[in-house]
Amino acid sequence: MKPIAAWLAGAALAAIWTTAGLAQDVIFLSTQLRPVEEATKVRQVILKGVGPVTYAVEEPSPFQTRMDAETQAGKRTISLVGALHGELQPLVNSKGLSPVDDLSAKAKERGVPDALMALGKLGGEQQMYIPWMQATYIMAAHKSALAHLPAGADVNTLTYDQLKAWAKAVQEKTGKRALGFPAGPKGLMARFFQGYLYPSYTGGVVSTFKSADAEAMWTAFKDLWQHVNPNSTSYDFMQEPLMAGEVLIAFDHVARLKEALNAAPNDFVTFPAPAGPKGRGFMPVIAGLGIPPGAPNRAAAAGLIEHLLKPETQVAMARELGFFPVVKAELPSDLPGGVKLLVEGVAKTQTAKDALPSLLPVGLGAKGGEFNKVYMDTFQRIVLRGEAPRAALDAQAATLAAIITETKAPCWAPDKASNGPCPIN
Amino acid sequence: MSVGLRRVVLWSGVVTLCLWVLVPIYLIALGAFGGRAGVFRWPKSLLPWDATLASMQTFLAVEGVGRAAVNGALVAALTMLLSLALGAPAGYALARYAFRGANLFRLLVILTRAFPLAILALPLTVTFIRVGLYDTPLGVALVHTALALPFAALVSASLFMGIPRELEEAAWVFGCSRLQAFRKVVLPLALPGLAAAAIFAFVISWNEVFAASVLTVRNKTLTAYLLTVLAESPLHYRFAGGFLLILPSIVFIFAVRKYLFAMWGVSNK
Fold this sequence. Notes:
The structure holds two protein chains of two kinds.
Chain A: H1 2-20, E1 26-30, H2 36-46, E2 53-57, H3 60-73, E3 80-84, H4 85-93, H5 101-109, H6 114-119, E4 130-135, E5 137-142, H7 160-174, E6 179-180, H8 189-202, H9 212-225, H10 239-244, E7 249-253, H11 258-263, E8 268-271, E9 280-282, E10 285-290, H12 298-308, H13 311-321, H14 337-351, E11 355-357, H15 368-384, H16 389-407
Helix pairs in contact in A: 2-13, 8-9, 8-15, 9-15, 15-16
Chain B: H1 3-40, H2 54-61, H3 65-96, H4 102-110, H5 117-131, H6 137-161, H7 165-173, H8 178-207, H9 210-214, H10 222-230, H11 235-255, H12 257-260
Helix pairs in contact in B: 1-11, 3-6, 3-8, 3-10, 6-8, 7-8, 10-11
């Protein structure tokens, strides 16, 4: 028995030693830039020379659990959090964020647009997060597919009808359904419906959910789906099927296309998502930086925010990670091939004449997941299972109405502003 | 059936089973050492012509991997010791003493596995922060022990039941105290089986992600550290990470393989 006792004692000692032997560093917890390569770049390039910072990454669900647990226990280990707008929103209600009004003047000075700063108030009076970086969704295509573009179509000003004709032509010529969407379990397909398809066809997201326009839209999308690769329902990231040549045309978040574009920058083109009758919907994605109340080292966290908003840091983020500056910063012309393609795609999206920006859902709090599910369920019922659009829309609209009633969320762009909860017409 | 035919059937079965286990591991290794381009090449080459250490090196160079590996091993070792220290006496009691509610106890002991950790995560984390176990290997090991305990208790119960009571009684007759009889007679016989229960505990701890990631910030175990980022990494990294994660399990199981047979009572016969 003796060796076992010695073992136990040794292990316990080691356990104490590992906890006690820590430097007084600042913990920066982020739900963004999680993949190994990106986290390494954050540690080695972005955070280089700013003092002892532990950059920890976590998926959104454990992130919420941890923040809530630290709030309830009244003891913080985390000084700075970085997360998407929608992930920071629930922290306001659960008291996981403290106001950062003292940092907002500096951020404005650096050129963060007022619209982004306003998002950082999360529906309240005080600044709850400072915008950190932005991204959006674009389309990418293999150059070999360009030959099959329908006559008269410009890849940069596609409409959904032209996209369908294009995918059909590619299918006829190559025999494969070469259009792909990230409709897998971890894919971001719900954002395609909320930020792209719905605004483009109906000019709204919530108020027009079951309109006649929406009915026509789903009918058209179901028609388009005949030419979409059936594996789409298992794609989480489009970069892999693009690299493997399984799909030739794809829609996804820029960070989820980056690998393919970096691997073969000369083989791909990037362009905005198609336009519908009401315009070319697109959804900017904003990540922000916040400081929990009672953070162990608020001063250092504020210093980190300051560092991350420096123009040179923001340019480095674009170059290394494919996320775009929120401050005024000139991107250099010698960007690596893949990032350059991304920058072009995003620029073409933002400056398109018919661009119709949509905000991320605002005011839904913890109901964001259920909100996404409404759109994914509607998609499954109409497109995958072939239910009649009218019946499916009416049924799903009831679920949507329940979420909106419960959260009392007013309409957000592109829906027209409303007094009180956003109506579903 | 002739002897020759029987042998053919036996060996083809053996080969099939081996391939069943080894081919996926080989393919993972191939992906891990094939580099970024190798993963996407089609048709795949089954021979490691273009083996490169690049992705493995990047992986091992990721800040914190070494520390996470140490933490993972520490947590697994602690889990092994704690679940054995608590589970073996429970198993002995179940096997040797008839007491009211023994069957109920058997059932209840499995109950710790009935609650999904995701539901327990919040209250557990809050309690751990208050008690001061948050972000310590010991804290994670305690949760893993709770998960491994039912197996340790039930496996050792059936183990002790398989050791004849008469041997113990004979030791008492010859002047051993209860404790001495246990140490000198029962324990040597039970050791291989206990080792198997310990392996179970080790593997349960090594594979557990949720508790390990929520209950720690700096001191993540290797599995928690890698798995949270693997699902969203490029394919060749997934292979490299997967290979890195199965390697310790394979080495460990290989090292203790002869005890593993004890679970099916092979080595005692």
